[in-house]
Amino acid sequence: MSDISSFANERNNRLLIKITRENLPQVKDKYPFLYLERGRLVIDDSSVKWIDCDCNVVRLPIATINTVLLGPGTTITHEAVKVMAAANCSVCWVGEDSLLFYAVGQSPTADSRNMRTQMLLAADKKKSVEVARRMFARRFPLAKLAGKSLNEMMGMEGYRVRQLYEQHAVKYNVGWKGRCFQPGKFEIGDITNQVLTSANAALYGILTSAIYSMGYSPHIGFIHSGSPLPFVYDLADLYKEDLCVDLAFSLTLEMAGIYNRAKVASVFRKRVIEMDLLGRIGPDIQDILEGDKDARSTCK
Fold first, then answer.
1. By C-alpha distance, which of 119, 65, 57, 115 is closest to 87?
2. CA–CA separation, 206 vs 147, rounded Å?
3. Contact 91, 33 (CB under 8 A)
4. For the chain, what is the radius of gyration of the CA atoms?
5. If pLDDT is split at 50, 70 and 90, which confidence band does 265 have?
6. How far apart are CA 189 and CA 181, in angstroms?
7. 20 to 30 A Cα–Cα from 90, which one of 82, 148, 171, 277?
């Protein structure tokens, strides 16, 4: 009984559940992504077969899946990649539960309609600003954004984000000297900044996988620029307040000056599940981009 309870608790704390014959996507749907870990993908009689670490075998309906996310402990044969490419199924290599993103392999014939919509909007200065305005409006619904330029809205954002940090510092009785992050020097930040950096990185991993799986590009943004993944950073700002900022300040005193990676990962996963992040990303992207019907109609 305790083993069953332990398995149930583990399942409830995972963002992405183990694949079995019972929970495979239905053929009627084009499933956005499938997460696999600790097993191998091979070809058997021209079909893709997943063999997990317990030697369970599941034949995958690759034609109904946009992207396969390969987590820790996975291997894939060259022949499996060839069959998946023929079915327009992309492959992403990710960390556990897609909390880290490493690389992507996409078929040359992959559906590019969503990316084309995204490119058309980003290439038109006026439409691009409107998309950015919808993003800012979601985060700051009381702000007067009508007629504001992108630079003006970014200036307003900077002031509100600083206020947000200060409000959380007061709420959780945490000393706060400002955001501090230097690539490659994680340990020099205080506990709050370390948790923020870790939670942000995990959020970026989830978003990058999701963006690729839905046929968009993480490299085409509307607010951020001059960075490798601007669309990821654009979307991340929609979720950071509840998922990353509040988490960092709420854990600071509990950690008592000692960064606990396992604790951060556990609480982060719990919050992602509670807010149904994986279920929200797709509709949120559509809502943000669909304001321009003309651009969408030209892509059909």
1. 65
2. 33
3. no
4. 21
5. confident
6. 7
7. 277
